[in-house]
Amino acid sequence: MAREKKTCVECGHKVKSLFIQYSPGNFRLMKCENCEEVADEYVECELLIIFIDLILHKTKAYRHLLYNVVNQESANVQHVLWKLVLAYLLLDTYRSLLLRRTNDESNVSMSFVLESLEVLVNVLSANFAFVLSFALAAKMMLVMSRGKEILLGVLISSYIKIFLFAMPVWEFPVSVIFIVDMLVLTSNAVALKVMTESATSRCLAVCFIAHSIRFLVDQISGPMSLKHLGYVM
């Protein structure tokens, strides 16, 4: 069985290994043969440092996460992908519920079942439009061949959605939801740049198109589902 190769976080070149371990706690970081820099300095960094660099959208941190932490060539990557899809949809559903409770506080007559059904329809339709528009825009503007890898990267780089859980605790205004949405967009663009090695402007354009269409579909599908249920006031 061939040993999996890692990636230099500085230049993106493949390397045989990131470090040589002599004994527990005693290792030496390897240098990249291409750029002659340390291949992955995050190997000896704490998780908090990596998380901060991810929030700062540093490409080095994204290369570390997408290539040296997540093994995209492993046999169970499909299993990980489905888990990430489920987590993504759950976070998106939570986001929709936060918006609904903020904007529709006066509408208390709708039952929980019907409300949940409407939110589910909105989330599924909006994300279907997002995936479709993302694929079309990427095909026209980028050079890419590994769709599963790109999807995995987009899902992982949407980790910023977890900050939505802090809203009820700290009573943030609803505008924070849209700030999180913008951070998710830019995070997706950085991940796309890392995986396709395309220009930043093109990656931002692809993500902007996909997220804009997703937002429009979400705005349209809400009133449409209400009309079908007979709950338009």
UniProtKB/TrEMBL annotation:
It is found in: Endoplasmic reticulum membrane. It holds the Pfam family Arv1. Keywords: Endoplasmic reticulum, Lipid metabolism, Lipid transport, Membrane, Sphingolipid metabolism, Transmembrane, Transmembrane helix, Transport. InterPro entries: Arv1. One of its GO terms (cellular component) is Golgi apparatus. One of its GO terms (biological process) is regulation of plasma membrane sterol distribution. It comes from the Eukaryota. It is a multi-pass membrane protein. The chain crosses the membrane at residues 80-99, 119-138, 150-170, 176-195. Regulates also the sphingolipid metabolism. Belongs to the ARV1 family. This is Protein ARV. It comes from Arabidopsis suecica.
